């Protein structure tokens, strides 16, 4: 019986397999969590870019002016354009990952 326990104690077959399984498992968990963090960061940055693009104000205004020469007069009428930024921003939906998912808010006591 003592010989059997000594042989089992000295047994090292499969040690490298266990180490490889442990290493691959840790690497997989690290890669998956890293990709999830990168995905969230990319979505947040693209959301910021979309919000900035919507916020570009394209309003302009040109005043009228009259150019008078010796025997001529040129009149240029004014022009203006107003961009409705508030309506554009109201239509924008931020993909915020810190908000509470639908249906998973705090519990409401109905009593």
The percentage of residues in β strands lies in 5-15%
Report how far apart the termini are: 69 Å
Q: What string gives the helices and strands in order?
A: HHEEEEH
Total of helices: 3
Largest sheet features: 2 strands, antiparallel
Query: How confident overall, as mean pLDDT?
Result: 78
Outline: rod-shaped
Question: Structural class of the helix and strand makeup?
Answer: alpha+beta
| Tally of DSSP β-strands | 4
Give the low-pLDDT segments: none
Tally of distinct domains: 1
Helix content: 40-55%
Q: In which order are the strands of the major sheet placed?
A: 1-4
Using only CA atoms, what is the Rg?
A: 35 Å
State the main characteristics.
single chain; 111 residues; alpha+beta; two-stranded antiparallel ribbon; two-stranded antiparallel sheet; 3 helices; 50% helix; 13% strand
Task: Explain this structure.
The chain is α+β, with helices and mostly antiparallel strands and 111 residues long. The mean pLDDT is 78. The protein has helices spanning 2-10, 15-54, 85-91, and strands spanning 60-62, 65-68, 73-76, 79-81. The strands form 2 sheets. It has a two-stranded antiparallel ribbon with strand order 1-4. The protein contains 3 helices and 4 strands. The chain has one domain (2-83).
